[in-house]
Each structure stands twice: as C-alpha cells, then as structure tokens.
Model the fold of this input.
Amino acid sequence: MTTRERELELEVARLRRVVDVLARRVEQATDWSGDGYTLFERALSLQDEVERRTRELTTKQAELEDAITSLRKGEDLLDRTGQVAGVGGWELEIEPMVLRWTAQTCRIHEVPIDYQPNVAHAIEFYAPEARPLIDAAVRAAVDEGTPFDLQLPLVTARQRRIWVRATGVPESRAGRVLRVTGAFQDITSQKAAEQAILAGTRRLENIIAAEQAATWEWDVTTGHCHINERWATMAGYTVAELEPITIETWTRLAHPDDLLVSGKSLDAHFSGLSPAYEADIRMRHKDGHWVWVHDRGTVLEWTADGRPRLMAGTHHDITDRREAHDRLCEANLQLMAAEARALELAARAEAASIAKSEFLANMSHEIRTPINGVLGMTTLLLDTALAPEQRRHAETIAASGESLLSVINDILDVSKIEAGKLDIEAIDFDLADTLEDLAASLALRAHQKGLELVARIADDVPLALRGDPGRIKQIVTNLVGNAVKFTDAGEVTLGVEVAERSTDFALLQVTVRDTGIGIPADKLDAVFDKFTQADGSTTRRYGGTGLGLAIARQLAELMGGHVGVRSEPGLGSEFWFTVRVQVRGGGEAVIRPRSLLREVPVLVVDDNRASAEVLATTLRGWGAIPLVATTGEEALDILQRDCQSATAVRIALVDLRMPGMDGFALATAVRSAPHLRDVRLVSMHPVSRTGLDAQSQAAGFVADLTKPPRRAELAKALDHACATTASTAAVPVAVAAGPAAPTIVPSLHRRLLRVLVAEDNPVNQRVAIGILRKLGIDPLVVDNGVQALEALERERFDLVFMDVQMPELDGFAATRELRRREVPGLNRTVPVVAMTAHAMQGDRDRCLQAGMSDYMSKPVSPQAVAKAVDRWCPASIAAGA
Done:
C-alpha cells in the first residue's frame, strides 16, 4: 500500500469517528429535560453538523475509491511497462521490515506473482559470490542512506543463472531512513553483448599485435593524428621521436609522387565514390631508403554539414610484395616469351603427332596388306591335304603371322592411347558369357603347354552389365597370355569378385594367378611400363614387346580402375585389375539344367583340385550334391561305395587326361562292373571337338564337354545324362552352347549368292576368292571403285566386299556414289562390307559414315567372312533369289 492510500484511509477513519461522536450527541440531544427551545436548536445544529460531516465523509470516500482505482490503473500500467521494458520494482519498509516486489520482479526471479519475499530470501537468490555485495549495499542504504546501483549474477527459482541490475534509493525523514525503493532489471542479453564486444575487442587487439599492424587515427578538422608504435617503427622511428604528430608528419615522410595518388583516393572516399580510402605509398625510412606501405582507412565520424571529422586506418608493409611484384613482372615477360616458344613447339608437336598418326595408319595398312596375304593363304593351305612336315611349316607361318599381327595391334593401341583417341564403349553384355567364351579360346594355349585354365566368378558378382566387354577381354587376354607364357607347370586361375558395389554400379576386380617363374621384387614397379620386361637381357627366354601390360594399365584406368601385381620368384604371380561397370537390373539370364538335380549326387573327377572345385560350386548352386575325386582310383572307390543305395552316384564328369588311371581307363572299369551300369559318364577334355570320337563312344561316354565348360554346355550335358536310363540306349552327344559358329563349308543357300569383291591387291584378291569359294560362293572380283560401280549397274549382287584404298576411285567414294546414284536396275541398298587394312581409331566410323554396312579389318579370317555372309545374306534372301 502506498503512502497516498494510507493517508486517505486515515482521513476516512477520522471522519467516521467524528460522525459517531455527532450521532451520540444527537441522541443526547433528544433528552428534553432542559430548555425546550434551546435543546431543539442544539439538536438542529448537531443534525446539520452530522449531515455536513456525512457529506464530507462520502466525498472523502469517493476520493479514496477514485485514488485507489487510479492507483491500480497506474500500477497496472507500470507493471505492463516494466514487463515490456524488462524492469521491475521493489520496496523495503524499514518499520516494520517488509519487502515488496512488483510482478515483473517476480517474473525475473521466476516465482509466482503473489510471492511474498523477505530480505534474507531475496539475498539468497543471488549467486554465492554476489551475496556479500548486495547484503552490504542494502545495509549501507538502510543504515547510512547510501544509494546503490549494482550488476550481479542471480540464480532464479528455476535454477537459471542470469545477470541483473539492482538499484536502490533510500527515503529518509528527520534523519531516519523510512524505506528503500529501487528498480530490478534482467541484463543477461546486455551482459552477453558486452562480453561479445569485449571478446571481439580482445581478438582485434590480438590480431593487431600478431599481424604487427600499424594503426592511425586522423582528426580531419584539426589535423591531429594518433599512431601506434608499429606505424612509427615502419619508418624507423619511435612515436616519441615523431611527436607532435599531425597530418604534416605523414606528408613529410611520404614520397611526393605518391601523395597525388593518395589525394585522389581520399577525395573519392570523401565524396562517397568509394567505400574506403586505399593507396600504395612509399615512406622514407629514417636511414634514407624507401618503404612501400599499403595505406587503408575509412571515415568514422562526419560533421553536421557532411564533412569528414574522424578517420582511422592501417598501414601494412608491402615492400617484399612490391619487390616480388617487380620480379613477377620480369618473370611474366620471360614467361610470355616462353609461351610463344611453347606454342610454336606445340604446333610443331601437333604437326608431328598428325604425321605420326598418318605414318602409323599407312604403316598399319602396308603391313596388314601382306599379312592378310600370308595368313589368308596359310589358312587356305592348312585346309588342304598336307604332309606332316608341310603342315608343321604352314602352322609355323600362321603362328608367326599372328605374333606379328599382335605386335602391330599393341603398337596401334599405344598410339591411340597416347593420342587420346581410344574410346571406351558402353554396351550391354553378360559377364559370364563374355568370360566363358574368352576362357574357351584361351584354354587351348594353356592345354598345349600342359597347363590347366580355371575360371571362376564369385556368387555375388552381377552378370548383367553395361560397359566395354571388348576392352575387358583385351586386358584378360593379355594377363592370361602372359601367365601361360611364363608358366611351365601347374595352372592359371582367372577369378572375378566384387570390390565395391552400389545400386547402379559395381567395381569388379579380375585376378589372374599362375604358378610360373614369378617376378623379382625390384622389377614389380616396372612391369607396367612400356617396352619393359622383368628380364630385359639379351639371353632372356621369353619374347614380347613389353607393351601388353602397359596397355592393360591404361585401359583399366580409362574404365575407372587400376592394375596391380603381387609376385615372388619361383612361386608364381598374381596380376589384377579393377573396372567400374554399370549394373543392369533384372537383365541376367538364368542358366540351369531343365532336369531336377536337387540332392542328386554328381561326381567330378579331375586331377586339378581348383578346376574340380569350380565345377562343384556350380553344381551345388543348381541343387546337386557334388563329390570330388582327383584320381581315377579315388573315383572308382566312390562309385563302388554305396552303389546300391539311394544316394549312389548316377552321373560322373570325368577328365580324360589324368595321371595314372586316366578317364578312358576309369570309363572301362565302370562299364565292366555290372553294379555300376546306371552311372552316366560325361567326358571333359581340353581340346574343342565337333562331336564324340570313336574312342569316347566306345568307352561309354554319353556327352562331351570342353574344359573349362560353359554353364550352358554343362547344363545341356547334365540334362542328357539325366534323360539316359539303364533301359534306354545311351546316345552320345556333343554339347555346344549358344548359337553355332559360322561354318566354312559350302552350303546350298551360299551357292546361290552373287558376291562382288572390289580389291586392287592381287594377293588379297586370291585370298578373298579362296575363302569365298570355301563357302561355296564364286565371286566376281574387280580392281577399283569405278569397276565396282560398273559391275553393280550391269547385274544385281547380294553382297559387296569393298577395299577402302584403291586407285581411280577408293572404297569411300565408290560407296557414296552407289548410295547416291539413281540408275534403273541398280540396287542402291546392297550391303557393302568394308574389307580394309585401315585399323586405326575412327576407320570403322569413317566406313559407316560413307554408307557402308559393316567393317572388317585385315587380315580377315574365313570365320569372319562366313559370319558377314550369314549376317547380311541369310538363307531366306538366297532362297528368294
């Protein structure tokens, strides 16, 4: 309750007492024992007094109520204002000792609005370290009438630590303090801001000290300046030596030529054209030399009429930078001269590169043309009746020609990679089909040396992929070829596993291990360099250009992978490469036997444990129960064991070439045992054959597989073995997977074809005629493009083989003219297959862009020609002819 409220209450109480006294007097006045008139007058007088005092009391009470209402409105306004401003109030009555808080003060303390504090409790809200300060301040205010204004930490009822400002002003009367009134404010945010400013100031001071920045302050109106010691030190002085410091101090030290630059920058900043003043100025050092400084500053205060009043900035010593800039300018001049020289050399290099590419293209053409004759005629020769010695000589010629062709291809690939013209394809392919086909072609070379080639693909490897299968096959062919070359006994293993996998991509690791001679540790880093071999001596045993591994490394890197090798001399080598491919969802072909193999025992007989385990893994994936034997004797023991039980072996996959009891001896033993008559034998051998030979049929084999077997071949062989029972005759079959390879024997539909060959080289003409006649085709041969067009106008052909480089009119021009020319009877859409010695990057595209239908690089093989004939002239076309 305020002082005004108490005064009004006291006044009302006094008036009530007066009214009570008057009322008693009126009662006494009703005693008529005295003079009647006098008593009546006295009663009327008292009655008037009572009425007057009652009206006065009513007025005072109304004033009191108005004052209370106004006071409450004021208190409410004060509370709302304090809440908005974050300021509360408090009052300490001395006698009696009563402490009152406003609502906002209660909010700051986070206590209920009707909280009734006392002095002790109020002090306990302060942090322990602040309690002695607030206690002393309150005591001094009460005892001595000393006001206070403190900023102290406080802990709220909710245990939040905040900062508050508490002020107190004593109210005294007659030298005694009656009460202390004050304000209370939450200044936590203000404190945080102050701390941030303080921290920023400290950081700035530390930065200035660490950077050794020179600072200056200029009162533009008076010319007086303030600098720090670093500013003076840059010029070789102390601040004391330069005092008194004015703008003239600066102009006296600055280079006269640079003052003009400085003045222009100042005018631009003063006029608002630039946000800051900035200039590179030379200052004369105390010892006489010039120091370059970067001078920068901004106006901090402006006068009322818009003129600069106070400006501040920094100096940075840039002498080293300016000297470096001068050196850089000199170096730039030298660099420009060197660049001009480099451009000249680059132009020469480009011309040399073009000349090199043209030279390689011409050399490729000139070398491939005779090689085509050598290999083509040798192939035709080997297809004739030859004496054994003659056949050996012809086979040596063919092998030498293939080796020479391999060297040429390696050199061309290196040239393409170095020129950046080797493109990586992105086509759909099946990894298992690709590697199985490749392993089948490579197995023959391994088996010729008595080696076993084992190929395995991990179960988690995706098979439906998108990438460049041709380049993958090229790397694998190189690694496996090297493994076979440097291995005299044992095996070569080709494995594929997943190195990394995501939803759409996989990083595959392909590993080729061998049991060969190995590589010394000091040679491992060099095996992937061009023209380098581990043994580079003149007495080396193994040949080669040393390009294969270099090409493999570059191809792997082009496909997002790497290559590597691990090896020890005498223990073999392990080469690997990684390649990043796209995974095609749902595109994998499911290959498995049609017969139900679930829990069917199948015996694998192979002296090579790794090869047998690969087959066992495939069989296990198809539901069979694989058993493995590494000798014929062990296989016979397994077959005779439990031969009459339900778990007896009914199918055996038998390697024909094994030490001791080979496959034929095992088959003879099985057929001679009546209790093993239900066992169906499938032969496995390293050499591809078109069917079971008489020896295999006589031994009782029902199917024939080439090692390493393709999945489709293995499934077909198992289906045939399952279909053969004891009550049915075992009809032997030769298993072939996928579409049949084009045959190079005459066929009826080929005999009906009309084929034109445009070739200017007589040797290549004879090769083409020989191959086509082997297919049953009698071609017409012309020497150039002009004769080809004339022949096409005279008669209708089903297919044209077109050389590219010919006199008078080359193959490109002849094909374009054929597609353009409109002559009655001319078949403008006849398929044209390029048969050319041009094998550089882009030659195939040039042929297709000229209008050709297909492309074959020389030397051509009979199989490639047969494939082209069957592709462009299927049997239906010949029948229609």
Q: What stands out?
A: Residues 536-541, 725-731, 736-743 have pLDDT under 50 and may be disordered. The CA atoms of residues 753 and 878 lie 6 Å apart. The chain has 27 helices and 28 strands. The first strand starts at residue 87 and ends at 93.
